[in-house]
Design a protein that fits this description.
alpha+beta, HU Protein, Chain A, 2 domains
């Protein structure tokens, strides 16, 4: 699902909201999640999952085309861990094993 598809589905489910208001709402939510992760905070959406930031150490990698060694600097990367309810919806046959 793309951002525009998400906006349209929310607008369809809430006909009392204007499309521009739904666009603002979705943009605000994404901006707040991005800002929180950029500040090094964790974002948890109960039943859906949690976003966090992990630090990757500097390392030596290989260029797949040439095989040449390349220095990769340390960097922060976003992580997502699915919540229990999301995992159960994706794997209903495994729900009773948790």
């Amino acid at each position: 699902m793309t951002r525009s598809e998400l906006i349209q589905r929310i607008a369809d489910a809430n006909p009392h909201l204007l499309l521009r208001d739904v666009e603002t709402l979705v943009a605000t939510i994404f901006d707040e999640i991005t800002h929180a992760l950029g500040s090094g905070n964790r974002v948890e959406l109960r039943g859906f999952g949690a976003f966090s930031v992990k630090m990757r150490e500097a390392r030596v990698a290989r260029n797949p085309r040439t095989g040449e060694a390349v220095e990769v600097e340390e960097k922060r990367v976003p992580l997502f861990k699915a919540g229990k309810q999301l995992r159960h919806r994706l794997n209903p046959d495994l729900a009773d094993k948790d």
